[in-house]
Amino acid sequence: MEGELRPAKKQKQESSMDVSPVTSDSGATPSSNKDANELVQVAPVSTNVASAPAATPAPTSTADSDFSSIIHPTIAEIIKLEDIPAVEPLESLTLREMAELESALQIGDTYTYDDDDGWKPDWGGNLLLYEKEIIVNKGYLVNQPNAKPVRVKYCDWISSNAPGGNGLRGLELLFRFVYNMKGTPAMAKKILAYSLQRTAESAEQRRQFIIDATQRVSYDPAVLQQDGWSTKKVDTPEEGEAFHIGRRIIWQRYEAIIVAFTPDETYGGLWKGVYVEDLETFDLEPGELQAGIKKWDNKQKQLTRKKTATRVVPPAGSTRFAATANFTVDGIENGIILAIPTSRAAQGVLWPARVRHVVEGGLSGTGVRRNSSKNQIQVVFLAPFWNGQSLSSTGAKDPYSLGPLFEFDNLEVSENNIQKYPFDTLSMEKIQGSFRFLGLPNAVFSRYLDSHRLAVALKTYAIKHISSEHASRSDDQVFASASLTESHALSVRTPIFPQVALTVPFDFILGKLPHPSEFASASMTDDDDKDVEPTIDIDAIIHSMSPPECFGKKPASPDRENSLLTPEYQKISIQSPNPTFTPAIKVASQEEDEEALWSVNKFASDFLCGLFQTLSSGDDPVIDGLAYIEKLLTSLIAKLRQLSKAFKGYGASKQTVELKNILCQCLLIKGHGEDSLECATLPPGVSKSTIVAEWRKTCERLYKRAVGKLSSEGVGNNVTSVITDSRCNGHITQSGSFERPVRIPAAIKGAKLAGAGTNANVLLVTQVEDPYLEIAENKVIPKAHKMSYVRRLKSKIASIPPGETGVPLTDDSDGEGGEDTMGSRGSYTAAIAGIAASIKAADMVVGGQSVNSFCAVRPPGHHAGQELRSMNAISNGFCLFNAAACAALYATTPRSQGGLGLRRVCVIDFDVHHGNGTQDILCPTYDPRFLYVSLHAGGAHINGYDDEDSEDESFRLRLGGKKQDGIFPGRCGDTSPHDGVLNIPLGKKVNASAMGAALVSQVAPKVEAFSPDLIILSAGFDAHVNDPLGMGGLTAEDFGSVTEVACQMAYKTCSGRIFSILEGGYGVPCCQPRDDLFLPPNSSEADRVLNLGSDLPAKMKDEVPFTLRQKLDRCHAEGFLECVKEHVKGFVKCNKRK
To answer: How far apart are CA 640 and CA 647, in angstroms?
Structure first.
């Protein structure tokens, strides 16, 4: 109903509105059923004054100059109405002009493909024809009936094609037609005439006058009153429904106000609403009105609760303090944060800093901060890199480390400047991963590492040795102290470090620690001990300067033994087995005992082996969970040992089957062991979670031994695979769609640039075997999607005539929801092939044929849910079937039912849009088998806040919709509904620093705690800085970093088992020259075409409209192809298991 101008009621419409336009020649409507090949060229109208001879005076309204009697005061504050002077009436159209207007609007045209193509019965409906979409390539359609019509709004077409940009005759004719219709309100006539007759300095300004006029007639109180609406509010509900006039509501998430009411025979009554933000109007039925009122009331209740819960009332006049007085950050009680320095040389990166307490002052010489701003805190940046750059002229090898180790700064308090410090220990993997996304030179990493060494040391010291009394203080006490000291609450919450702890010779200590160049890459190992550097123990250093240590004597008690170990190390000592079985050592030493090589303690840690020995040493050992997992482990080791001896004698096909079987058994006993430990009898003081974690590591070591022993060249370790299928090219969308068929050839080209097909360890699989298609269609898809959805989609596609393309596939019975998801007769097979490729990838990765894999398939799938338009999205967002969800379901299906039998699968989605379909299929409620993680553009501050008890269909947006409409698919990705979902909205535009911070500080801990058996990436590259959607700021190199960080998570949890499935990413320049231009061989237009060579099928067309071509031109520098290249390179870099 939105934007519709309705008559007061049907009776009024039939009696007072004439559907026939009035003409000056005969008053009859000419026949207009033409088959014109082109639009009729309309002559220009002056931009200054529309020529109109004086005729009968225009009707006037008594309300023209004084609206106070017909408009509610609340509405008057929102709607500011400009006085309209006297105007000349507009002439009625001649027969020739009427024919000209109908031809321009394509009224009755056979090429409009529109059933509702005639004049409207009411003046408002005809006025809205200025937004009608007309076909601008009719001449081409005459010769090419199967081609897709190109539609443009009538007003845009008139504006862009007026001769010299100075004429808008097409709009003038429409206004004159509406002006002279019977039933057009007098005030509406005056507004329309004034828009054409007032002085305009340009055609663009005239066009704006016309647009403003069409909007004003929809809410002007005089127009509404003359059209049968009541605009005067009554005092009580008993007096009528006009009682709601002036009432605030929430509609489609925006604030609006009711401005008028009219009785209606069909609906019982209609209320006209106006959005407060842009004065756009809409009509509401009774039920819709009550829903809007309920949302407004709920919103007010929420605001009231927030005001009631406010922790402090800021002093009068302190508006800046009021905005951030309650701001805090997790972990402030430990004193360490991430903050953005004020120095421009710092390039706006988040850097570790210590927050100074309000009583500090000695170090900086600035004294107590009583007179500083209440919206600021004073911090000390740790090992900053930016203060040493000015010394680079000295020729130092590492100029970023030459500056002072500490730098003082005053920071404005805001969530943009200050964030939680994420690290508790110094994990080299995580430090390296977070650094990749800062966009800093590699030479800065040494200083970056030192900053975190200091941050973790200070944080650990605060946790262990600073009194936590201040942390237990109430909010009232904190704010009272902040008020007395005229400081921010963060400066009160932070701990007070003793002076001696801050003056430890950190420069000397850091100089003795290993340089980053001395660290081997930790990305390919699951050994946490090797990855974590011990924390500098500040307390131990302080005590070493006191007697008896300062005299060179050892302390009387061994309390400080292993003092450099972090608290996590001191909890329990678990020694991992010596990894002599890793593929890095291809052949065991000849002297090594064969039995020792296959002993249990080569796989299980000393901790777990000790528990096994405790059980076996008893006189009457109890067969419980611990004994059971020991038997599972020993039997599987024996089987693997036997298989490794006979493996080389098998043929290639049998080797593949046997390798998959033994690896799946490793993962099956991993799950069985977890279940058996639930009933295990545990020694006192031993945590069940610790045993489970060690059991998982044991099984993964066995898995890696199996792959290492049974691998061969091109199979197993050090292998990455790229999987595609030419049948995916059968999905052909409409011209102008972002989701074009050339995305697959471009992805293959990018993968080849990363070594696919030429490097023996980077396999290129170009065809998926038919059995995988049968499994996909008959076994897996029914688990993911409701059969009613599958049957409807299959039937819809089967009905498409051969050769026809761009047909809506996901529209509902009302014809809605199919605007962006179109296809052709080959779309169903293409979607099935995509699912089959993802299943094959799961088989290859879990079955040991490759370490990781990339599936270059389309159509994408992460917006496809259990049924049509999942989670209240307005469309399916280019998606038909969900490959990522199907692969996860296949992987967790029991082996007895044809699946892989995995216990847990994690899906990480880094497409710029939230994967509502994946969440809907895998995690509608908590399911311990699945963890869904999504990093995407969005957030409640962009998509709006859902109202409590809201009964509307959430907030629904089209993919690539207007920015002010929010971000597709809506609110569903703004929050995480349960522990099986981690949604991380990253704002209106995804940038590298936000992506990196989220991966390291939120995603990695969540994934490691979940401990998946397999990780699946929904790999969308539409967050690239040059993508036509314009919603991201990542580079191709950033996507490579995202891939490497994800692979590190896989090595930590599941021996590196990970594969990705192509989702979004549309930055592919046009791959074919325009066929409507005659170009010389060396023209610049030909140079602007992406050459895919033999990867582009000969029959594939790439018709790209001019406007989209312009957006895609910048992708020649870097775009989708380069993103895929870096993504696959990231996999190749991480395919070496250790």
So the answer is: 10
